[in-house]
Known about the structure:
Blueprint: E1 3-7, H1 12-23, E2 27-32, E3 51-54, H2 60-70, E4 74-77, H3 84-89, H4 91-112, E5 117-123, H5 146-165, E6 168-174, E7 177-178, H6 187-199, E8 206-208, E9 214-215, E10 218-219, H7 220-231, E11 238-241, E12 247-248, H8 249-259, E13 268-270, H9 288-294, H10 302-321
Parallel strand pairs: 1-2, 1-4, 2-3, 4-5, 5-6, 6-11, 7-10, 8-13
Antiparallel strand pairs: 9-12
Amino acid sequence: MKKALITGITGQDGSYLSEHLLNLGYEVHGTIRRASSFNTGRIDHIIDRLHLHYGDLMDVTAMAQLLLKVKPDEIYNLAAQSHVRVSFDQPVYTGDVTGLGALRLLELVRTCAPEARYYQAGSSEMFGKVLETPQSITTPFYPRSPYACAKVFAHYSTVNYREAYGLHASNGILFNHESPRRGETFVTRKITRAVGRIRAGLQRRLSLGNLSAKRDWGFAGDYVRAMHAMLQQDKPGDFVIATGETWTVEQFLGRSFSYAGLNWREHVDYDARLERPTEVDLLLGDSRPAREKLGWKPNWDFYMLVDEMTKADILLAEREAR
Ligand code: NAP
Ligand code: F7E
């Protein structure tokens, strides 16, 4: 039985990746952080089948002990301070966890588990102020936030450890991917949560920032399949994972509100504090190499994504209202 170790198992992607690996027959280990309140909500439904360990990318000693104890065949580094807006408020912390955290882990893989295959959770935010459209694996990076700068550092550290030490280390450059388990401060979930609550009479207004930003939004459940597929390749490599379609925040907003029979213009306020000092205006990914080499393709399109997220949040708000 293959063993996988997932950092960030309590996050959106960690939960879907755990399900996928369990279905494939893996023994799944993951790191969790001690918090003053429960933080395993996304994995509670499978928690009896998981092996959870306290761990933090800031804590080299604990991570080293974990690698030596678990001896994973595959390591998925999903842990990060992953919020772009927050990274402007906590730039050094974000650099430490999201950038240096990956390097710390790579160094531990090199010394404690050199045979393990390593996946680095890269991001389309690295393309930032895009230098070409669509963005592909050969598009130069132009990061626009401390988060994106940290991810660029993690990306090149992964490439360097592959080339310098022969690690089987791969970067997935994933475009935005969402789900009913998405964190509630990311724009898609913030919108669908508000739609559910407005419809249930629990909320009246929704404050948003820039509505004209364009994103290539996919479904997280589809994207974790690509992470696993990368580590099954004989040779490690870097892949862009995207749907190949781009939509504005306003289009997401319009679709979600109309799904619930509401008009967004009657409920949404503009709040300048939600703008970023430097914005990423347009993301659109070219994932053809992943489709050809990994046999990967997304099953959900934009409309399905918005509708499923909205439906789930309508049900959640109805439960809250009761
Ligand atoms: P997420 O929901 O924010 O989850 C982040 C995970 O990292 C959580 O489990 C969190 O633990 C953990 N974490 C944070 N700081 C940590 C630390 N110092 N040590 C150990 N664990 C720590 O993110 P996601 O959406 O699942 O994304 C997964 C990864 O893909 C992230 O690296 C993200 O930057 C990257 N990414 C995401 C997208 C996307 O659209 N979702 C696109 C491209 C790349 P707690 O639960 O304890 O906070
Ligand atoms: O913003 C605009 C905002 O925070 C999307 C992370 O998973 O994907 C995510 O980063 C857009 C931006 O995602 C609000 O200005 C307007 O243009 O949902 P987001 P993100 O910044 O694209 C990438 C690929 C990652 O790697 C990251 O980890 O929406 N926007 N009004 C807003 N955004 C938020 N959060 N809140 C608003 O009220």
